[in-house]
Amino acid sequence: MSVTVAPLPTGAGDVDDSTNFSAALLAWFDHHGRKDLPWQQDPTTYRVWVSEVMLQQTQVSTVIPYFQRFMTSFPDISSLAASSIDEVLLHWSGLGYYARARNLHKTAQSIQENHHGKFPGTLPALQALPGIGRSTAAAILALSANQCHAILDGNVKRVLSRFHTIEGWPGTPVVARQLWALAEQHTPSRRVADYTQAIMDLGATICTRSNPQCMKCPLTKTCQACLQQRVNDYPSPRARRNMPYKTTTMIILLNQAGEVLLVKRPPTGIWGGLWSLPEYTQQDRDSKKIRAWCRSEFGCNIEIREQWPAVRHSFTHFHLTITPLVAHSLNREILIMEGANHVWYNVEQFETHAMATPVRRLLEQLQLAKGELT
User: Fold this and answer.
1) Closest alpha carbon to 370 in 343, 348, 345
2) What's the mean pLDDT in 120-134?
3) Rg for the chain, CA atoms, rounded
4) In this model, does residue 163 exceed pLDDT 70?
5) Bigger pLDDT: 341 or 306?
6) Which of 54, 89, 205, 210 could form a disulfide with 63 if both were Cys (CB 3.0 to 4.6 A apart)?
7) Per mean pLDDT, which range of 70-79, 90-99, 242-251, 348-357 is the poorest?
């Protein structure tokens, strides 16, 4: 299917072609753009890559402390490749979308083994690596090497959809192709790194999803959505879909020393490779069945002490309701020996295991209530 790209608006103001689009954006960036982000200092390919992966579906303010800690522990590709996945996940814990961390680790090892520790310098070669799509690869090369490649992240999609009044949800192939064509049309051959940062900054700080500050935008005189007073109509939203609801029971199992049992999740899937609380997935939370399950799984007799209020956590494709049950092992000796997939964890110690946010919050709640439970 061929894609027709709408022509740039003409005769509507100061910006009437692609050259002026980029020129206006760069002039705005010189005075208002973000230039002091941690990854902008010494923007090596490695640092830009890590930042771009962290920034996928995550706000800058959230990413900054994670990036700084990550760089302290893994300052280069070789240190990241030599680390364990547990170490990487621990540094990622709380940032979400954990497949990003697993792909980051895989890519580091691939670069170390197959590219002599050097990042590939071409778009196709970068895209062949785990977790690096077209826009991420383009951003890495543009920001670290000033190579002329167009990007199309969420911020850019929003800017271009509004500027050209592009109908349709950007996630559909036909709209995505149209937006890619426009992104390439606007990307200048010079100052590509600054332009790339500028259009991302514009979308993040001015052309925001809600309450955009159009009067501060350097493109406002020729933005078609602004001229038509339809800014809030673009980009078109994704069709609403009913998100399924799932339930699980997490057992907060304490031993005689007051330590809580953690189990390691499978390496793929939801929270892959993270440490979690034992999950009883049956719908029927009959106490006899749960006690029998604990005897079967862990070889210990338990007493269920308390049920905490349910916790809701949403993923991209379903909602999860967690029912926490506090239980004590009745065995005087610890029958479950620590190993690769389970550990007794002291909630008062410094965090040493990577956990998903809901699990960490339950353990924080346990720490507060521990005096009442023992």
Assistant:
1) 348
2) 94
3) 25
4) yes
5) 306
6) 54
7) 348-357
- Which residues make beta-bridge pairs with 90? none
CB-neighbour burial class of residue 38 (10 A; exposed 0-12, middle 13-18, buried 19+):
middle
pTM: 0.84
Annotation marks residue 52 as catalytic? yes
Question: From the centroid of its chain, how far is CA 1?
Answer: 32
Is residue 31 classed as helix, strand or coil in its secondary structure?
helix
Q: CA 145, CA 307: separation in Å to the nearest integer?
A: 55
pLDDT for 286? 84
Beta bridge partners of 264: 275
State the Cα–Cα distance between residues 209 and 305, nearest whole angstrom: 46
Distance CA 131, CA 81 (A): 15
Spell out the domains of the chain, with CATH numbers in brackets. Answer: 18-233 (1.10.340.30), 245-373 (3.90.79.10)
Measured CA to CA, the distance from residue 294 to residue 289 in angstroms comes to 9
Question: Among the residues of 14-130, which ranges form H helices?
Answer: 18-32, 45-55, 60-73, 77-82, 85-92, 99-114, 123-127
Has residue 87 got a pLDDT over 70? yes
The alpha carbon dihedral of 116, 117, 119, 124 has a sign of positive
**Tens digits of per-residue pLDDT, 183-226?**
999 999 999 999 999 999 999 999 999 999 999 999 999 999 99
SS3 157: helix
- Which residues of the chain form beta strands (DSSP E)? 245-254, 260-264, 275-276, 279-280, 302-307, 311-314, 319-329, 342-345
**Token representation of residue 325:** 């049950």
Q: Are strands 311-314 and 275-276 parallel, antiparallel or unpaired?
A: unpaired
pLDDT tens sequence across 230-279: 999 999 998 888 889 999 999 999 988 889 999 999 888 888 899 999 99
Strand partners, 344: 261
Please, what is the angle between helix 60-73 and helix 45-55, to 10°? 140
User: Tokens at residue 354, please?
Assistant: 């990577």
Q: In what helix (H) or strand (E) does residue 201 lie, and over which residues does it extend?
A: helix 192-205
